[in-house]
Specification:
- There is one protein chain.
- With 213 residues, the chain is an alpha/beta fold.
- It has helices at 17-33, 43-49, 54-61, 67-86, 96-104, 117-127, 147-158, 170-178, 193-196, 209-212, and strands spanning 3-7, 109-113, 135-138, 162-167, 182-186, 201-203.
- Strands 3-2-1-4-5-6 form a six-stranded parallel sheet, sandwiched between helices.
- Helix 1 packs across helix 4 (67-86), helix 3 (54-61) crosses helix 4 (67-86) and helix 7 packs across helix 8.
Length: 213
């Protein structure tokens, strides 16, 4: 039997809130410069939906724009996020590195994220997470844009029979349930109490995970 732990990235391992606002502001500045946006950058609206697939993000933030403009906005946004990461403006959550080090001694660790692969790789490289993480899986890898399907793919590819999904949003917790894994919700920046009710366990600090697994 293979027991593994599957982590979300944004709002679980990585403090996305530190780079979200400047990257989004830069993206909407480009839209404003091309007369494609008027008014303030919808940062709070994005915070509310943080964790959903990127096509849904841009459908929500730019409902009146064409798919071409949404796609271009997302490209700009991804570029700006990576610039922020490589500039050292992001950070892992407190105790993530030491906790992953301990967990990796006993379990294979994976990442399942709604983020794009280039973005995820930038985080992996910046913080050398490949020391602990066996493989990173992006929602880009599957056609459904459904995290439950992504986790199912990870399970099949790595012959996982039991384990945990750890994340901050309902898609993470539902993915655990749909695949008969145990869910651990993290009460960090983007977590919502109504969604955390879906979790088998909830932690407020990352090292608490060690007491559960």
């Amino acid at each position: 039997m293979t027991q593994a732990i599957i982590f979300d990235m944004d709002g679980t391992l990585f403090q996305t809130n530190l780079i979200l606002e400047p990257a989004l502001e830069a993206t909407f500045n480009k839209l404003r410069s091309k007369n494609l946006w008027k008014g303030a950058t919808p940062i709070e609206q994005y915070r509310e939906i943080m964790g959903v697939p990127l096509p849904t993000v841009w459908e929500t933030l730019c409902p009146m724009h064409s798919s071409e403009i949404r796609n271009q906005s997302n490209k700009w946004f991804q570029q700006e996020l990576i610039v922020q990461i490589k500039s050292g403006n992001g950070a892992l959550y407190h105790e993530v590195e030491e906790t992953l080090k301990l967990l990796a001694m006993k379990y294979p660790l994976y990442i399942a994220s709604n983020g794009e692969m280039a973005y995820l790789q930038a985080i992996i490289e910046q913080y050398q997470l490949n020391r602990f993480i066996q493989k990173v899986y992006s929602i880009e890898c599957i056609s459904s844009n459904n995290k439950s399907d992504l986790v199912q793919w990870i399970i099949k590819e790595n012959h996982i029979t039991r384990g945990y999904v750890i994340g901050d949003r309902s898609s993470d917790l539902q993915a655990a349930k749909d695949n008969q894994l145990t869910s651990i919700g993290v009460r960090f920046d983007f977590a919502q109490e109504s969604e955390l009710e879906l979790a088998n366990y909830v932690v407020t600090s990352f090292k608490e995970i060690l007491t559960i697994v």
